[in-house]
Amino acid sequence: MYPQRPPDLNVMEFTVLLALAEAAEKYEVYGLMYILKNRFRNILLHHGMEIIEYAAKHDYPDLIGIMAPQMLEKPLAEMLAILPPHLFGAWVLYRERWEDVRRKAFTIGCFTSLLNLDIAFQGGASAHLDWQWHTRWRQSIETNIKEIPEFTAFLGATTPLPVLIDVDFHSSYRPF
């Protein structure tokens, strides 16, 4: 250690932050691990998948949970390549709850995403519906979305997945 101030993590390049985080995990520098996890929380939207891979590797499900709604469109095969079995099982259950809401919404309207209902309810397929019914339908969908638990709530709800693939395959598999 040199008698100087530590570097400012807010201006550090992401690749350097990620390398520093990996080193902190390797050498179990718990104070730095905590600081970097919080820093990653602030830049998650800019480096989402890289941070998700880091979070999956080092078992930080709360970081994954923050990005979970934005990852709903990712193919299951891609998520299988990133998440270890205990997180993948929770991911499947979480995604299924969102799919249930989407199926209910699709029975009448045409949605590509449930993350921005303002766009989904602008005219289009739902324009022919009377306004009151339209409002009740939207409120029903919003209620269903609010009832979806956070990703981390599914962690304890999962039963162990059957081992269909060996660990070496899981760590080396990457989708096309």
From TrEMBL:
Protein's recorded name: Uncharacterized protein
Source species: Hypsizygus marmoreus
Species lineage: Eukaryota, Fungi, Dikarya, Basidiomycota, Agaricomycotina
